[in-house]
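Researcher: I'd like a structural prediction for the single chain below. Treat it as a standalone chain; there are no partners to consider.
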Amino acid sequence: MFESSFIIPHYPQKPLEEAGGVYSSIEPYTPKVVIDGKLITGQDQSAASEYALALLHLMTGHSPVSAA
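Model: Treating it as a single chain, here is the predicted structure.
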């Protein structure tokens, strides 16, 4: 295994919190998307599908998923 500092040299948690932001996370490779106004963030690549749906929702104002 590689040390995490080799793979990810910068972690945003500390600077984000120091700037007054709220940091949240879950287990790695578990989809997590947060929408705050017009800002959408995804935890990692596993959140790509959920991120795309959130972006479509934000752009159109409609849910990209409809009930059958």
